[in-house]
Amino acid sequence: MPPRSTRSTRAAPAPAAAPKPASKRRASTRVAGASGKALKKQKYDASPPGKAAKSTTIESKYFKKDESSTLKKGRKRRTAKSKEDYEEDPDAACSDAGHTSSDVDSDFWELREQATEGKNAISQAIKDFSRKRGRKPEASSVAPQAPTTSSKKDLWREGVKTGLGPGKEVFIEKPKARDPGNIPYEDETLHPNTLLFLGDLAENNERQWLKAHDADYRTSKKDWDTFVETLTEKIIEQDGTIPELPAKDLVFRIHRDIRFSKDPTPYKTHFSAAWSRTGRKGPYAAYYVHCQPGASFVGSGLWHPEADKLALLREDIDNNSERLKDVIRQEGLRREFFGGIPDDEDQAVKAFAKQNSESALKTKPKGYEQDNENIELLRLRSFTVGTPVPDADLFSPDAQEKIANLIGIMEPFVTYLNSVVMPDLGGQDTSSIASDSVDSE
Fold first, then answer.
1. What CA–CA distance (Å, rounded) separates 247 from 396?
2. Considering its fold, how many domains does the chain have in total?
3. More exposed terminus of the chain, fewer Cβ within 10 Å: N or C?
4. How far is CA 357 from CA 8, 229, 313, in A?
5. What is the mean pLDDT of residues 314-324?
6. What range defines the domain where residue 299 resides?
């Protein structure tokens, strides 16, 4: 008999529960040895590949632009003043005009306005120049005026259309230097083409034009440089304090500094040079030669000296005005620079003050009384003299002799200025004179 099975009273054990699926881990948590800070950075910086990052429409207050500050900055830009508006001291405003930059010549040298004679007058000067040398003026010696309507003339300009169809070519002729004709270039005279170039530059004062006429510019610049170098020898004969310097230390650049100027024209329309004990720049009084069609002239002096130099000049005028008055009363200055006035002290002072009235004070300088007997000289902020030179004189064989004679007449004036502002060793002691003179209008 088979054994009988017995039923147990115990509860049957419950079946084993299925294991829970493992939670997905981020890739950043599987990096071995990664620090918590680095993992946190990866968590927020990393974005799944191929999936554009979502942008929230809620803008954080920390990243909002301050519109009020932006408007303030914009207003600040629009109302920004030029450099000249920040000058408070009238002496300091012009103190470095002729000393800090070797490329800027004084604006004083352009104050004596003269009517420009034009190209017809320049052509007549060329004829007279040829006749003086015994040569018959030819048609080639007179540079004709360029035609105003010329297709070739304007091809160098940017944006000019040639009118050619596709596949066509146009070759622009680069202008050559102007034909000198039968007048050779010489070291001791200026060639008429030099003034003709300056006249053309005045009508086309832009960079593209000068780049296209580079040959004309270089020829004229070389003519001026050689003229200056040979003129230096004759100036040294008149004033032994002037050293023998190369043209690069005497000639001013033709490029204008337009950073703080309202005039955007890039070039000066004249050639110029200055001779002093340190060349075209420095604290010494200088001789100046200005070459411009219809407005050439020769001058000398100190244009807007620094505040301490101006204080020295005013101190000397106040204590011993006879020194300056004796200089400006000399016969040569009265004849060549003051229009032939008689030998009278008052008239000489008025003529000298008139030539420097452009920058003079309207009332009195600080530290001096209005009823000072020398107030007309004390108001001055420039001490200069100058006289025009006709264009024909620059072309004449004795051009440098004429300029040297004028410089010889101005030598006592320049010597006086240098004895005050830059006295030689062993001279008067200027340490007690204040250097921070400020004028009050």
1. 22
2. 1
3. N
4. 134, 33, 16
5. 96
6. 90-147+170-421
